[in-house]
Every structure is written in structure tokens, then in C-alpha cells.
């Protein structure tokens, strides 16, 4: 670029600055002029000379509504302090319980292991090996790191346990009818616990620890009018569910006392809580087991040993078998009953079975709770420092316990579909055709 070109650019830049200063001065003077004119018009023209349509929208009023609501809420709280405290306590308790349940579900539950990583915790399950509850509990406890033993009375039950093909789910032969055999079996079991074990060749030996005994009596009960249930059924139920459970507990008590192991008793709760008609066997058996558990808790409590009772509701056992309800309400076919008994009880029995099915007491239309809830509760009862005495687990275990405790028995019977039967009409001999048609309808319902 030559010197003449540079001189020309300097001259142009000076003119450009002069133009900018001139235009800026004009704009500033125009703004001051318009402001003066607008001020003069505003002072001279009277207020409100524009029509409503031409006026601009007024600014929104200040938001003082929230403050008014706050004052009203404070006044209401001061007038209703008791109700406010109840509402706050309700929501606070619900929030705390919800938070605890969420933490429990996320908590990792694993059995303690030896220093070399081997399993050391032993749990014994006493119940029918083919029961869905026993199968599910044994598999879950084994996955959590326990060595699980299932009490078996004969070789057939041992084969069922071996059929699960799990190395740490083992049968424990114990025939309580054989007194000497029971003593020898318990001595071998106790020696096995006291003997040092090596997880693999060259590993440091470790001792096993007996964590707990879980009692799960057979959960299937006969139902029907008392006069249709023979004494042999009561005898079988009491022997298999009560006396056998007591005998197994007695056999394990020395080992339980030595290792400070815990005892868990699992019983159905819905039918025993409601105590409806046609379920005398289950009501009597569960009441006997609950009484035995209470006495056992008092005795072992003097030794610092915890005894927990599990009141079970309904569970979905579809992944370990067919859907099963722990308190079955299906009874014998009413056709096999005597004619007089059918006239007196059949209609109420069929009606109660139908109502129980629709309201969730059986699993035909209701799957029940997940077995994971039972698994977590059993693990917590075995491992917590201070476990609860009574655990209500499963769908309906809490609700029906409250209903049975607070609702009158007559109202419970009405809810179950039980109605009063006129003895005059029931004892009257019906015509053959009417009787055939009526019982044909009942048979179709059953």
C-alpha cells in the first residue's frame, strides 16, 4: 500500500467519526424532545380520557393469595391440634415404614462364612420334603450360603431331597418313632457339627455352627362338618402335625441349647384367626401348635434362646409347583355325606367355599404374595440380633388377624356366606324329585 492510499484512508476515517458524532447528537436531541412532549401531554390531558377498549391492560395485582392461605392454614392447625398431630404422625410413620421396607428389600442377605471362604452356617428344616414351602426355603437358604438339612423319616423322602441335585441341601434321617435311632441320629449330627471341617485339601479346618431349626408342619388340613370327620382323621392330624413336631423339637433341644440356635415355628394363620365353621381340624391343630410354641419360648427364653412364630398367609408357589394356599378351604364332596348332614350343612359349606375362593382365601383366583417375602423374613429371624417374637408374612396374614381379633364372630360368618338354617325345614323329608334336583345343583357347584 502506497503513502497516498494510507493518507486517503486516514481522511475517510476522520469523516466517519464526524458522521457518527453528528447522528448520535441528532438521536439524543430527538429523544429529549419526545420525552418533553410526552411529559407535557401527560400533564395537560385529563386522566381517563381514553375509552376502556383503547386502554392498556392494567398490571397484575401483587400475589398475596399464598400468604392468605398460609394464615388460614395456621389458624386451622391452631384450632385442630389433635387432628393435625394425628395426620402428621400417620404420614411420618408411613414414610418411615416405607423407607425401612425399601431398605430391607435392597439389603443383601448372605450367611457368614469361615475365614477360608467355606460355608459354616447350618440350618435344619423339619417338614414334608415335597412341600412347596420346604423346597423353596431350602433352595433360597442354600443360595444365601447356608448348609441346609431336611428332616426325613424314610428312604423315599431322602430320595426326594437328593433329587434336588444341590450339594448343600442334604437329608437328615430322623424317625421319631424309633427312640434309639433318633438318639443315634442326633449324636451323629452333633458330632458332625463339633468336628473340624476342611473345605478342600490343604485348607485350614473350621467348625460348623448350628444357626437354627425351622419347623414347618404339613399345611394341608381336612375340612367339613365335625360329624363327617372321623376320629381317625383327627388322630392322624394331631399325630402328623402336633406330636411329630413336638418329638422333632425334643430331639433337637440339646443341640439347640448347646449352640444357642433359634427355633422358628411356621403355622397357617387365616383360618385359625377367623375360626370359621367346617375347619375344626385346622383350628384345633394350629391352636395346639401356638400353645406349644408359647411354652417353648418361655422355657428357652431363660437360656437366652429366641423362639419365633411365623403366621403365614397366602403365597404363590407356581415356580416350585402348583399354586398352593396354606389354608385350603376345599373339603370332601358333599355327595359322600349322610343325607341328614347334607340337608343341615351342605348349603353353608358350599357357599362358604365359594366366598372364600372369591375373597382370596384360596388361590384359584388369587396368586398370593411372593415367596421372596417369606425368604427374607426367615433369614432375618435367623440372623437378627433381636428378632421379633411373631412374624406375620404373606397376603392376608395381618388383615385377617385383625378381623378375627376385633370383628364379631357373627359378622365374620356373614362375610363368609354362612346363614342360619331352619331345623324344621332341614329335618323335613323332601320329595324325591325335589331332592334329586336340588342336590344335582349342589353337585354342579361343587
How is this structure best described in words?
By secondary structure, this protein is of the alpha/beta class. The chain is 54% helix and 9% strand. It has 15 helices and 7 strands. A 7-stranded parallel sheet has the order 3-2-1-4-5-6-7, sandwiched between helices. Strand 2 (147-152), helix 5 and strand 3 form a beta-alpha-beta unit. Helix 4 (132-143) packs across helix 11 and helix 7 packs parallel to helix 9. The longest helix is centred in the first third of the chain and has 42 residues, at 3-44. The chain is elongated and about 125 Å long. The model is unreliable at 322-332 and 429-446 (pLDDT under 50).
The average pLDDT is 80
Low-pLDDT parts are 322-332, 429-446
Number of strands: 7
Structural class: alpha/beta
Residue share in helix: 40-55%
Secondary-structure element order, N to C: HHHEHEHEHEHEHHEHHEHHHH
Number of helices: 15
For the largest sheet, list the strands in their spatial order. Answer: 3-2-1-4-5-6-7
End-to-end CA span: 113 Å
Measured on Cα atoms, how large is the radius of gyration?
Answer: 40 Å
Describe the biggest sheet? Answer: 7 strands, parallel
The rough form would be described as elongated
How much of the sequence is in beta strands? 5-15%
Keywords: Membrane, Transmembrane, Transmembrane helix
Transmembrane segments: 82-100
Organism: Pseudopithomyces chartarum
Pfam families: DUF1776 (PF08643)
Amino acid at each position: 500500500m502506497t503513502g497516498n492510499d494510507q493518507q486517503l484512508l486516514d481522511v475517510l476515517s476522520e469523516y466517519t467519526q464526524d458522521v457518527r458524532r453528528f447522528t448520535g447528537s441528532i438521536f439524543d436531541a430527538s429523544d429529549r424532545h419526545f420525552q418533553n412532549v410526552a411529559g407535557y401531554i401527560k400533564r395537560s390531558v385529563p386522566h381517563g380520557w381514553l375509552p376502556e377498549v383503547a386502554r392498556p391492560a392494567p398490571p397484575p395485582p401483587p400475589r398475596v393469595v399464598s400468604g392468605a392461605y398460609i394464615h388460614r392454614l395456621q389458624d386451622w392447625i391452631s384450632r385442630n391440634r389433635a387432628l393435625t398431630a394425628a395426620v402428621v404422625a400417620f404420614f411420618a410413620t408411613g414414610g418411615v415404614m416405607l423407607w425401612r421396607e425399601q431398605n430391607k428389600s435392597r439389603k443383601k442377605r448372605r450367611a457368614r462364612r469361615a475365614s477360608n471362604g467355606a460355608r459354616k452356617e447350618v440350618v435344619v428344616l423339619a417338614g414334608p420334603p415335597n412341600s412347596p414351602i420346604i423346597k423353596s426355603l431350602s433352595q433360597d437358604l442354600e443360595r444365601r450360603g447356608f448348609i441346609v438339612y431336611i428332616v426325613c423319616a424314610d428312604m423315599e423322602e431322602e430320595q426326594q431331597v437328593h433329587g434336588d441335585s444341590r450339594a448343600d441341601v442334604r437329608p437328615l434321617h430322623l424317625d421319631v418313632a424309633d427312640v434309639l435311632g433318633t438318639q443315634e441320629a442326633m449324636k451323629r449330627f452333633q458330632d458332625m457339627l463339633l468336628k473340624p471341617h476342611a473345605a478342600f485339601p490343604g485348607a485350614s479346618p473350621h467348625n460348623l455352627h448350628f444357626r437354627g431349626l425351622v419347623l414347618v408342619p404339613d399345611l394341608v388340613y381336612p375340612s367339613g362338618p365335625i360329624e363327617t370327620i372321623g376320629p381317625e382323621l383327627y388322630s392322624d392330624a394331631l399325630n402328623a402335625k402336633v406330636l411329630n413336631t413336638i418329638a422333632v423339637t425334643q430331639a433337637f433341644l440339646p443341640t439347640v441349647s448347646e449352640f444357642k440356635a433359634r427355633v422358628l415355628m411356621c403355622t397357617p394363620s387365616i383360618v385359625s384367626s377367623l375360626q370359621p365353621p367346617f375347619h375344626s381340624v385346622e383350628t384345633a391343630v394350629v391352636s395346639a401348635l401356638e400353645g406349644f410354641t408359647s411354652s417353648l419360648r418361655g422355657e428357652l427364653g431363660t437360656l437366652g434362646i429366641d423362639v419365633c412364630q411365623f403366621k403365614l398367609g397366602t403365597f404363590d408357589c407356581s415356580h416350585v409347583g402348583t399354586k398352593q394356599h396354606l389354608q385350603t378351604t376345599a373339603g370332601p364332596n358333599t355327595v359322600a355325606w349322610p343325607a341328614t348332614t347334607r340337608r343341615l350343612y351342605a348349603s353353608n359349606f358350599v357357599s362358604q367355599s365359594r366366598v372364600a375362593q372369591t375373597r382370596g382365601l384360596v388361590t384359584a383366583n388369587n396368586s398370593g404374595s411372593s415367596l421372596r417375602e417369606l425368604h427374607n423374613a426367615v433369614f432375618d429371624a435367623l440372623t437378627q440380633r433381636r428378632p421379633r417374637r411373631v412374624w406375620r408374612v404373606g397376603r392376608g396374614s395381618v388383615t385377617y388377624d385383625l378381623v378375627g381379633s376385633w370383628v364379631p364372630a357373627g359378622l365374620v360368618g356373614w362375610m363368609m356366606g354362612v346363614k342360619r338354617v331352619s331345623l324344621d325345614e332341614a329335618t323335613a323329608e323332601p320329595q324325591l324329585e325335589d331332592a334329586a334336583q336340588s342336590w344335582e345343583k349342589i353337585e354342579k357347584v361343587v
